[in-house]
Amino acid sequence: MNSDIRKLLEDVQSGAVSVDDALLKIKMSPFEDIGYAKVDLHRRVRQGAAEVIYGAGKTPEQIAGIIESMCRHGQSRILITRMNEEAAEFVAKTTSLDYRKDAKVGIVGGFPEPDGIGKIVIATGGTSDIPVAEEAALTAEILGSKVVRLYDVGVSGVHRLLAHMDLIMEASVVIAIAGMEGALASVVGGLADCPVIAVPTSVGYGASFGGISALLSMLNSCASGVSVVNIDNGFGAGFLANRINHMEVKK
Amino acid sequence: MNSDIRKLLEDVQSGAVSVDDALLKIKMSPFEDIGYAKVDLHRRVRQGAAEVIYGAGKTPEQIAGIIESMCRHGQSRILITRMNEEAAEFVAKTTSLDYRKDAKVGIVGGFPEPDGIGKIVIATGGTSDIPVAEEAALTAEILGSKVVRLYDVGVSGVHRLLAHMDLIMEASVVIAIAGMEGALASVVGGLADCPVIAVPTSVGYGASFGGISALLSMLNSCASGVSVVNIDNGFGAGFLANRINHMEVKK
Amino acid sequence: MNSDIRKLLEDVQSGAVSVDDALLKIKMSPFEDIGYAKVDLHRRVRQGAAEVIYGAGKTPEQIAGIIESMCRHGQSRILITRMNEEAAEFVAKTTSLDYRKDAKVGIVGGFPEPDGIGKIVIATGGTSDIPVAEEAALTAEILGSKVVRLYDVGVSGVHRLLAHMDLIMEASVVIAIAGMEGALASVVGGLADCPVIAVPTSVGYGASFGGISALLSMLNSCASGVSVVNIDNGFGAGFLANRINHMEVKK
Amino acid sequence: MNSDIRKLLEDVQSGAVSVDDALLKIKMSPFEDIGYAKVDLHRRVRQGAAEVIYGAGKTPEQIAGIIESMCRHGQSRILITRMNEEAAEFVAKTTSLDYRKDAKVGIVGGFPEPDGIGKIVIATGGTSDIPVAEEAALTAEILGSKVVRLYDVGVSGVHRLLAHMDLIMEASVVIAIAGMEGALASVVGGLADCPVIAVPTSVGYGASFGGISALLSMLNSCASGVSVVNIDNGFGAGFLANRINHMEVKK
Amino acid sequence: MNSDIRKLLEDVQSGAVSVDDALLKIKMSPFEDIGYAKVDLHRRVRQGAAEVIYGAGKTPEQIAGIIESMCRHGQSRILITRMNEEAAEFVAKTTSLDYRKDAKVGIVGGFPEPDGIGKIVIATGGTSDIPVAEEAALTAEILGSKVVRLYDVGVSGVHRLLAHMDLIMEASVVIAIAGMEGALASVVGGLADCPVIAVPTSVGYGASFGGISALLSMLNSCASGVSVVNIDNGFGAGFLANRINHMEVKK
Amino acid sequence: MNSDIRKLLEDVQSGAVSVDDALLKIKMSPFEDIGYAKVDLHRRVRQGAAEVIYGAGKTPEQIAGIIESMCRHGQSRILITRMNEEAAEFVAKTTSLDYRKDAKVGIVGGFPEPDGIGKIVIATGGTSDIPVAEEAALTAEILGSKVVRLYDVGVSGVHRLLAHMDLIMEASVVIAIAGMEGALASVVGGLADCPVIAVPTSVGYGASFGGISALLSMLNSCASGVSVVNIDNGFGAGFLANRINHMEVKK
Amino acid sequence: MNSDIRKLLEDVQSGAVSVDDALLKIKMSPFEDIGYAKVDLHRRVRQGAAEVIYGAGKTPEQIAGIIESMCRHGQSRILITRMNEEAAEFVAKTTSLDYRKDAKVGIVGGFPEPDGIGKIVIATGGTSDIPVAEEAALTAEILGSKVVRLYDVGVSGVHRLLAHMDLIMEASVVIAIAGMEGALASVVGGLADCPVIAVPTSVGYGASFGGISALLSMLNSCASGVSVVNIDNGFGAGFLANRINHMEVKK
Amino acid sequence: MNSDIRKLLEDVQSGAVSVDDALLKIKMSPFEDIGYAKVDLHRRVRQGAAEVIYGAGKTPEQIAGIIESMCRHGQSRILITRMNEEAAEFVAKTTSLDYRKDAKVGIVGGFPEPDGIGKIVIATGGTSDIPVAEEAALTAEILGSKVVRLYDVGVSGVHRLLAHMDLIMEASVVIAIAGMEGALASVVGGLADCPVIAVPTSVGYGASFGGISALLSMLNSCASGVSVVNIDNGFGAGFLANRINHMEVKK
Fold first, then answer.
1. Which of C126, F154, F199, F245 is the most interior residue, by most CB within 10 Å?
2. Which residues face E124 on adjacent strands?
């Protein structure tokens, strides 16, 4: 963007553009021209391998339209989250779609080679948490991370988790996903020495209150290095884990 | 009590008491005379070794008065919970009082020999939970149970708990006491094969909401065999644990 | 398990296994080999008569598959909770299933002879609480407890409960199940001298808030000896009651 | 008030007042002149014996000033609720004040002869509920009701309540006051055949949440004939009970 | 009941019954025989004109069965609340049923002549509150009260309410029913000088939270003489209002 | 209305109406006759262009009936909110209806020329908030305001909002509509120097709790000049914005 | 600001500033130089008469320092909200301060002549709401609005409010302030035809929950034209009311 | 630790230790000896520069004792959080303590050279959030991170934040700290392309509910890459940010 402004200034200097026209241009488009569009541009460059569509509340036709538009603009990998079966079937008519029913995730363009600094371990308390876990896993994978799945290691049988402690110790990021009492995050947080992202799920009944119990539990984790995302937000956890897993690329 | 009614009936049979007088007596005091007082009497017999005074909201003078009255009626062991220092100092002037400042518990008459079916293990997540734990421990001890203290074994360092797994395995009852995320109850519940009583504490800050987070966590425990008492209710947990620990005595 | 380690150490002593191989073996499988698997083994032995399947969120095919697998491994009694009619019909095609529609419970292999130390009394406040009560009752029965049902004895007609006070007095454990204001737990807790397990139910409307009102009421019970499980958690109450009812077996 | 309007209309009829002036007068003071002030006048007449001052948030000087002003206007009986000791001492300097420290209630002018249709029974779950109960009792008494106190009859010892069942049966209104789980309202509601007013109190700790637990419990009461007032609102309950207790006077 | 005990005592006196047999009889059936059953009997006598069936959660067959059983025992008037159309159609096949679809109320046996001490005014804030209001109205009517309906007089157009102030002033009881902000109860409470029963309804959206907003509003009413029942509990309000409306009958 | 009273007074003056009859008439209809109906009349005059029907909970027949009645009384513009498709189809049979499916809004009589003092800018955080925004926009438009739509300018891409800052600066009122974290209101509130009306929406999942999160966020806005209406209350925001936008007309 | 950029561009055109320096300058200070600072400048110009200091959490020394600094920069009127007495005394040593103890508001420089389009009416439910009302009133007054105070007109005595209906009808904005059940906002909203700003207060006890009850009530107001600010936020209401009251000045 | 087991095995091999003794040793101390202590050891090595003491709830004497003990064991840097002034003064008598009163943080041994992969930017919404921010900053600094402070950039003046966008763009981690509506996290999350850790603070009043409003807002952030820690948990955020900022060191 700097080059755009520089060009404009050079044009003013050379007389090719009048002061008034330059002023107008600067004023009318402060963001596209002066630098804030870089945010979006930068993002596209940075995340590169994949664009994301949030499928909830969109019609099959809308989703298909967005995909088509993205492909036309050269996007090679697309992740669609919260995509229902009906939408998947509709899209699959015209696009090569890899649909994961369990996670409600659709993938266009396949997965890239992982290029992060390590592995992301995704642990769940129970088998009912797997849909959220898969949303996280597929998100991280399409963005370029290697993912290790460690499902059904809830703390009511803590030996199951401990039996895989080497995985925890080797991870660059751990995503701990659990409903009910959400204690997994604390136990994992106490074992791991990498960042731990906790995802409460709405799994449970009665006093689980749709995930509030797990959410509060995770926010109160007595272990350091744990942070929390919204209930059932597998995508957010996968996105953040991948970002952390690509930290060394930055500078 | 049966004997009171029997006596009355015999008096009716013998003519010593008229039908009307008997009827009046039965009607006017249905509980003391006819059987419900047995509840209280039975309790005193059953719990025998100790009477309990809930100290909160009572003046030092009131507490001293109740103690004196109990002693006059032959009560040899008394437990006072939620007793502040001022009350303890006042009572100690006239009674031999064993006051535990940390637990805010006063004891008159000392502890009996334990006669339960096993040991009660009391585990806490952190050191801040110890006052509640001591209230539970002293309650169980004065009622006749052997107590093993296992403090500061929170799940953010799960190896601390696992290092004492033999104690957990040998317990007849485990009381799991924790604030913040309250995950201790689930982990202990998964390790123990005896009844586990979970006590949420108001330890924590922010989203711990004065114990709500721990409470919800414990209610949602994915481990079987766990039940929960009120926030900070060490007395209730100790009382119930002792009751379970004397199960075989019953029949 | 000790024998496994002993064998390994003897092999080291005899030179049959090298130090490095032994070290690797100990490190790589700390739980299966060194003792934590005993937890699960112990459990199977201890609870012996029945294995439990949580049916919610499982397809009829999955439930049938788990049952088949369990039977293949010699499991003779199986309890399936939260099992819907569709699953029951599917399972019944290939397995002899005793399905209780009201409680949403399926039973394979029938009930054992009760061998606990006493009777478990299950009291409900109303008739709408019966499904939860039956889940508790069938759980306790298949695990080997004798159960006495005392339904519809809510506190708005306290004489109904008092009319059965002998049952309450004779129980080894009482399970008090109620929705709405959940007052049953307190009244029962004041009458009984055995452990009381309170189960709030989601029965009610308006300010019952899906069981929160009953839950809070039970947690605040002014009666000693009462503890609480999750809303509608009949299984948890039945499991814990049976555990307490087998206390004397332990040592 | 009718006479005011009548006078105005007569003046219009006689020509003493013009139509425009009459119109203006009617329009400008619709309530004082046309009838709504009768509400307050009626009230003073109706409740006659006592005026009420809500003492919370008022300085001793303000309270004393209001009392003085009321007396000057011929008020012979005054009830001051939520009056702290400091205010009581200040007022007592100049007025003959009957101050009840426990209930934080001050009374000027003493109590009238009770003239209601029956007795109001005020029952409390515990001794800690007594301040609220006394606020209710004194309110009802100064308004002209006979009150029977039945304190510390909580449902964890239901025989204590049942022992006084005749009182409950004879009451014209029962006020049931309890904190913690608030079950007293349901039990009393099941026994009484008169209106029952339930008052939740903020007595308790942990999951009592300052009276919320008792409040919800009472709102969900499975007994018919029970209604609820605000937490700790002894005055409101006493006022309403007295109103019901004077029902026959109305027509 | 007194006569039962008197008979027993006379039999003991005469020798017709032994002391042991009498003792057993007294102990085994403390409530049916000694007096608590009088509660229920008394109720039937007292409320006489109608028995109530809570239809929610009951099948059409169950409701029909209960009605038939009641009729067989001589019950001439029956009120069924929360009765859905399917149940009404089923019952109507065999019984003469007056079904009010709006209120989900069914009536068998018609309404008695009103015999209360005055009129019950039922006011609603909007038209959406009418189903709850009708449940209250029909309940009070079948129990013997005269009811005046004053619907859609919400406080956002306070003149609509004031236009009917004479009705409010003449009422023996007012039931104020409103959802959303529930302010009607306070305004009515300020106008009326009789007991006011407030019924919050679940009408509204967003921050009405299913009736919580109206409930809290009503509990906090700054007007004296107002008490509250559960959200949508028209029956409870009608029942209580009728009870108050028959106060003078009692003594 | 004044003329009605004036007429009555003139009749009294002339002797055509007696004082008693006039008194009765004034007393019996204090609001219709004496001035409070002016509130409603005034409203009709003031808002003139449109009458509003709240469609939720009304049958298609009821809505059609109200429309017909309004038209018969000369109402030329009608807005129907929360109108479902079924109702729209029914009404369209007999009335020329402009139905906006997205906003669930029906319009009869078309839009007037805008005559407010400026433009109302309606900004939304995302595309899912558009239905609420359209309800607000159409409400303001039918009442006579010019509306500028600025959709999908949520704060996670704050440059999108800033790119339109001139619109914000020129607005006479801004309506900020957002779900999830509701931060849009604060950012807009900081940029605008006109009144800002914040509308939380129920858009989101998990810890958005049906709009509570956005609601709280907006109430806590650190920007001055922001006020809040109920969750999803597009109508209320549009109505209020239009009222503010016609301020200068008043005096 | 345009002139700053124009100057820079002219300097580039003339060669007085190099392209690189201009680029740096534009990039380094996008807001001060390019236009967003205008927001703040505009504000100062617009609100002119007064600057506001939020006193909560600031030491007396800090407040005095800010006042001194403002005065040095030519600010002639300053409003300090949430200012405690200690701070007022400290400031009064060096500045001429008009301190209103009740409202916790300090004023420097006195009040301007009101220049709004009409009068702001501030109504409160009770006398305890007055501190919040005064904060609102003084805020509006120092910003240039005429304020009419209408205190203690709560809906439990609705005639008090109606007696002042002319004031309500004449207002350009009404601020309705109430705690407890907050019904005042709805009643006022139904009477007024101008914007109504509702302010819930934390006045009350028990189920008022520190203002939540009033807040919910106001959000659910069934009257159109009502919006809500944070609990006890008198300043926010006064600020917004003044802004609306100066609407016509804008264009 | 491996060397300890290896030594033991070698001793078994050589016959220096018997199989039984080795078995006992392995069994009695499964964690210290067999590998889980590595967690703690590893941590100390990993975080190296500093040990942390949570000061809340500890007496000055306890804190001083722990510091002394740590120093004796060779710990050169110590961070004490939530340390009150009294404790600081006590500790300062015997230890060279750098106490930051605002953040309630004490530092022993000074700060190390930063060695992370980039800079941590800590942004706050207001000045009241600074104590939490400083706790985060000092935590990250003593653990070896470079921190840039960006205080008082709340979204109600979004230009303040945007003026520092280069800092945001350059950060390796951003910590966004805000109370009230917590919108800062979303705006920052939309601008940054690094991990963002959101910290809700208890700053605010009324509907901020002690930080709940900010917490919910942050959990619902519509920006990707944002996660949340507990209310006021500056330490947790600083600890996690530092961990992420040292990611590249790991492998």
1. F199
2. E177
**Contact check, Cβ <8 Å, H9/C22:** yes
Q: Using the beta-carbon criterion (under 8 Å), do C216 and D190 form an inter-chain contact?
A: no
List, as one string, the DSSP characters of D120-153. Answer: EEEEESSGGGHHHHHHHHHHHHHTT-EEEEE-S-
CB proximity D27 to F under 8 Å: yes
Residue E151's nearest CA partner among E172, E136, E169 is: E136
C-E C-beta contacts closer than 8 Å: 34
Contact: F117, G42; criterion CB under 8 Å: no
Alpha carbon of A6: minimum distance to chain G alpha carbons (Å): 6
Which residues of chain G are within 8 Å of residue H163 when distances are taken between CB atoms? 29-32
CB pairs under 8 A between D and G: 35
DSSP letters, chain H, are -HHHHHHHHHHHHHTSS-HHHHHHHHHH-HHHHHTTHHHHHHHHHHHTT-EEEE-TT--HHHHHHHHHHHHHTT---EEEES--HHHHHHHHTTS-EEEETTTTEEEES-PPPP-SSSEEEEEESSGGGHHHHHHHHHHHHHTT-EEEEE-S--GGGHHHHHTTHHHHHH-SEEEEEE-TT-THHHHHHHH-SS-EEEEE-----GGGGGGHHHHHHHHT-SSTTEEE--TT-HHHHHHHHHHHHTGGG--
What ipTM describes this predicted complex? 0.81
**Do residues H203 and H181 make contact, with C-beta atoms less than 8 angstroms apart?**
no
The span from the CA of E141 to the CA of E134, in Å, is 10
The answer, for B93 touching chain H at a CB cutoff of 8 Å, is no
The neighbour count for residue H77, using CB atoms within 10 Å, is 20
Amino acid (one-letter) located at E11: D
pLDDT at E43: 39
| pLDDT in single tens digits along all 251 residues of chain E | 345 667 778 888 888 888 877 766 665 443 333 333 233 333 333 344 568 888 888 889 989 988 888 888 777 899 999 999 999 999 999 999 999 999 999 999 999 999 999 999 999 998 889 999 999 999 999 999 999 999 988 887 787 888 788 888 889 999 999 998 888 999 999 888 899 999 999 988 888 888 999 999 999 987 889 999 999 999 999 999 999 999 864 44
Amino acid at E33: D
Inter-chain contact A250–H190, Cβ cutoff 8 Å? Answer: no
Any CB–CB contact under 8 A between B19 and chain H? no
Strand D97-100: give its sheet, edge to edge. D51-54, D78-81, D105-108, D97-100
Task: Provide the edge-to-edge strand list for the sheet that holds A105-108.
Answer: A51-54, A78-81, A105-108, A97-100
Element (H, E) at D91: helix D85-92
User: Measured between CB atoms, which of G9, G15, G30 is closest to A19?
Assistant: G9
Give the minimum alpha-carbon distance from E145 to chain C in angstroms, rounded to a whole number.
24
d(CA F236, CA H183): 24
Residue B186 DSSP SS3: helix
Which amino acid, A194? C
CB-based contact (8 Å) between F66 and chain E?
Answer: no
- What DSSP character marks residue F19? H
Q: Does B183 touch chain D (CB under 8 A)?
A: no
G233 or G55: which carries more pLDDT confidence?
A: G233
Comparing CB atoms, the residue among D181, D187, D218 nearest residue C218 is: D181
Distance to chain D for F42, nearest Cα, Å: 16
D210 φ/ψ sector (left φ>0, alpha ψ -120 to 50, else beta): left
The two beta strands, H173-178 and H196-200, are parallel
How close does chain H come to C31, measured CA to CA in Å? 10
Between CA G29 and CA G35, with CA G32 as vertex, the angle to 5 degrees is 110
The identity of residue E180, as a single letter, is: M
- What's the CA gap between G151 and G124, in Å, rounded? 5
